[in-house]
Structure formats: C-alpha cells, structure tokens
Amino acid sequence: MKLVRFLISREGFISVFCYAITAVFSFLSFAPLNLPFFVWLAPFGLFLVEKRNRGVWKKLIYHGFGFSILFYFVSFHWIYHMTTVFGGFDWYLAVPIFIGSAILLNFKFPVYLLLFSFLAKRVGKFFPIIASFSILFAEFFTPQVFPWYFGNVVAENQILAQNAEYVSAYGLSAFLFFISYYLFLLRKPKTFYRFITSFLSKHKAFQKQFLFGAVSFVLVLILFFGNGYYLFQKWSNVKPIAERDVLIVQPNAPLEFRDGRNPAEEIRNLMNRIDVMTEKELKGTPADLVVLPESGVPFFTTHDTEVTRFSRIYWHQFESLMAIISLRHGTNVFYNELDADLAKTESNGRISRRDVRMYNSSVIMNPNGERRNSYQKVFLLIFGEYMPFEWMYALSGQTGQFAPGTNLNLIPYYEPRKTASTQTKDLHFEDTVTMGPAGVREYYSKDKVEEKQIGSFLPLICYEVIISEFVRKFEGDPDFIVNVTNDKWYGNSVESYQHHTLGRLRAIEFRKWIVRSTNSGTSVFTDHLGRNIDNDFTPIETTAVIRKKVQVIPGEMTFYRLYGNLLSYLYMGIVGLVFFFYAKRNP
C-alpha cells in the first residue's frame, strides 16, 4: 500500500518521470534505434532524483531500485522472454526473477546515487567530476550478468567510439556523465542568464569558478573528440596485409520441440538446409572460411570419443556433413557443437554419467575435412548454461549443465584449395546415411591438399564478446575475431542488436574485424573502426547467408590490450585522493 500511495503522489509521479527519462532516452540512443542525441540527456533523471533527495540515504536506495526496474523494463524487456523460453520458468517464477535480476544486476543505480550524494555533501563542488567518478565506480564494482555500460551508448558516435582503444566503455561512461552534468546545469536558461549577469560581474570567486568549469568542459570535449578524430584518421589509413573471403551461414536451427514438432524430421530439414545454403553460395566461388553459429546444429558433436558415444551426443552424419562441406568446396569450416570428457577416471575403467563434463564448444575443420583445433566456452551464462546451486536445476529443464573451458588459444585456419573438386558428382547430406566420415574423406581423397596454416582468429562464443576484460586474456595476434552466438531464445526482439552493440567495441580495442555469426539473426561484419560493413544485418528469425571480404589488419598491441583499464583506475585513484584531502581540509 505504501508503494501505491507513493506512486499516485506528486513525488511519486516526478520520481517515475525521472526513471523514465533515463530509461527511455538510453533506449532511444541504443541499438537498433541509434539516436545518439538523447544519450546526453539520459543521466538527467539520475541527477534530478539525487538533487531532490540528497543525503536521504534510504530514499536514494529505493530510487536506485526504481531506476533499475524501469530501465530493465524499457531496454532489456527481452530478459523476461529469455527467462520463460530459455530458462523454461513459468510466468509466476519469471516475473520475480525478472524484477530480482533487474535490481541485482543493475545495482549500479543505487550505488551511483549513494556515492554521488555522499560526495556532493562532503565536497560541495566539482559536481561534473563527482558525476563521472561516481558512474565509473558504480560500473566497475557492481555485479552484472550482461555487462552493459553507458559508454556503449556513447559509442554510437563513430568519432567518440575510437577512444575505446584507450579507455574502453568505462571511460566513455565517465565522459558522458561529465558532459551531461554541465548540460544539466544549463537546463534552465533564465537561471543561467541571471547567474551570469548578477553574480559574475560582482564576485571574483564566482568568476573563477565559472572560468574553471568552462575551461574544463572545453578541454574534455577537445580531448575526446580530438583524440577520436585522430584515431579514426590513423586507422582509416592503415592498409590490410591480406583479405579473407568469409561466409556466414545463418540456419535458424530449432532449439526445443515443446510445440509437438518431430525432432528427427526437424534436424534432417536443418542439415539439408545447411547443405543447400552452402552449396548455393560456394559453388564456383569458394571462400576461405565458412562460419556456422552457436547451436547451428544443436544437441550433437563431431568429436568421436568413448565419452561422447557414451553420452549419445556423437552423430556420424553431423561429422560427415561438415567434412562434405569442407571437401566439396576446399574451405575451412568453423562450427559449434557439444563436447564431453571425464572429470575423473574410475578405477574400474567404467564411465559414470556423473563424471561426464559437457562443454559448449566450437571447432575448425580444415579443407581436407579433418577436425582440428577446438575452443570450449570459458565464460558461461548463469541460469542458461549453469546454475549457481545444484538444487536450482530442478526449477528449469532448459538450463544446461556445462563445465567451463580452460584454453584461451587462438584457432588456426588453413590455405583453401585453389581448384575445383575433381569429382563429377558431389556428395550431399542424404549421402551421409550410407557414408561415414572416413568414407567421405576417401571419396574426395584425390582433392586432398597440403595443410598450410595461413593465419588464426580469436574465437568467442555468445556473450563472451561483451566482456572486454575477458577477451584481452587471449594471447597472440589474431587476424580477426569470430563471435558465434545464438540469440534465438530472445525471439524477434532488440536483444540481438544490443548484444552486437555491446560487443562491437572489441573491434576498436583490438583493431581487428569481427565476424558475428548468429543462429537466427542478426549476423554482421564489423571493421576495425567499429563500423558495421554496409550496415548489412541479416534479418531476425530467418535463414540467411552473408559474405564479405574480411581485412587482416597488421598486428599491433593497442593500449587497451596491453594495459586494460589502467587509465580508468588511475582516474578513480587520483580523483578519489583529491576528494579525500579536499574534504579533510574543508570539514
């Protein structure tokens, strides 16, 4: 009842209006709408609520929760869809999970309001710096499952986005709140005019304060826009050392069959679809690399081992089809699969199901149809690929029980065959019924070429691409980044665009192209300047192919790859010390 009375009161109306300013303006600025003007106004809601409730700590916490819930409702409403479809929860469980995750995973809002209010009372000035310091602290030190930052929204501006090479999304968040607070101070032109005419002309202290603020505002603008323009020009003029012809196949694979469809028939249709799509695109025009998405062929593996056969996930027709595609067109094929091994070996030599570890894995098959290096997903999705507690698996039959991988090596790829197949009749999926992987390789044995590595790429599965601190742990210099993902669980929503936009900054941080392959849209190619090539996105919930020439940018260890978030930590450390000593000297 207290909540209802609050919401129908004048204070409640103003508060909800402030929540809406931040939520709606952020959503309008973000993908796929991409109206970047609104991002500079988005923090106004936070500023207004903090100013009206400065020092009232309990209210600020509640208001922070209000921002969290409304922000999730507007921008990340697809979380509810994920909870019901991906997690398999009923609505009466999905609603509290949605609200709880909105509060817990957007804890940055109450932390921001509390820290800003505390510093505003103790310091009493330098509010734009307090605003930028507070958001930087809140984004660094609060938990998130889908890490998003206000800086990702700022990065919709192509010039400002280039600063991510030094400061990632964190630094862009601090920049946004610094500039936005100055604009917030100018929200009432009459008050600003009276301030200039009546105070600045009479009080030297106010003159100095105004001059300091104006100079700071201009210098920060020049720093970020100037550096962004310089980096944009620098990297625009870099000549690639090679180009790779890459084909993305978007098969729109089914993920569950609760609607009564026949699983065997649907999987056969899927395999035929992949077969036809690749042949149509590659016949007569071979590519260097074919990329299939996460769950492009769900439920199965091509890794033939005692453990995978025991687990009944090895399917010889899956391996045969991948070999056919690579041999038929003389190309590398990178695809996603399940994989399994044993956590420990029983003394009696028998395999026990409780000792089997399952992995979300992606693997490369060379132009000779031979399975080579694989990558097991390291950063697993909570509530989707694992549960934090064993008893929670009983709540959701859709949640996987995956183990994290440990290997952070790049994936090598090989020189494709330069000539057409010598076979007069090519193999297709229907031939895999009677012909196993060995038979396929024997059939194309005359087309076998010498295996010669020509490069490597950085493999990322699903939302690993949005975690900048994780991606920089990979060693070596990749030719490009490949992100395979499955956004089908989120339906026809904005999630797929948001997912890509959150990961797009990896292209700038690494100065490498990104090949984004999705199961049901949106697949896209992004260059080393963070630009989506031709703004060419595949449609959602359809089958599609997209093909581009991916440039291999000369290897260079960028500042972010070398030092990570060093500049953000330095900024927080220096500003924190200045505030500490200032508050101590001016109690």
Automatic annotation (TrEMBL):
GO cellular component, one term: plasma membrane
GO terms (BP aspect): lipoprotein biosynthetic process
Keyword Cell division among UniProt keywords: no
Compartment(s) where it occurs, according to its Swiss-Prot or TrEMBL record: Cell membrane
GO MF terms, alphabetically ordered: N-acyltransferase activity
Pathways involved: Protein modification; lipoprotein biosynthesis (N-acyl transfer)
Key words, A-Z: Acyltransferase, Cell membrane, Membrane, Transferase, Transmembrane, Transmembrane helix
Membrane-spanning parts: 12-31, 37-53, 60-79, 91-114, 126-146, 166-186, 210-232, 562-583
InterPro entries: Apolipo_AcylTrfase (IPR004563), C-N_Hydrolase (IPR003010), C-N_Hydrolase_sf (IPR036526), LNT_N (IPR045378)
Pfam family, one: LNT_N
Main location: membrane
Lipid bilayer topology: Multi-pass membrane protein
KW Nucleotidyltransferase (keyword) present: no
This enzyme's EC code(s): 2.3.1.269
Segments forming domain CN hydrolase: 244-554
Homology family: Belongs to the CN hydrolase family. Apolipoprotein N-acyltransferase subfamily.
Job description of the protein: Catalyzes the phospholipid dependent N-acylation of the N-terminal cysteine of apolipoprotein, the last step in lipoprotein maturation.
Name of the protein this chain belongs to: Apolipoprotein N-acyltransferase
Organism (species): Leptospira soteropolitanensis
Name of the gene encoding the protein in the UniProt record: lnt
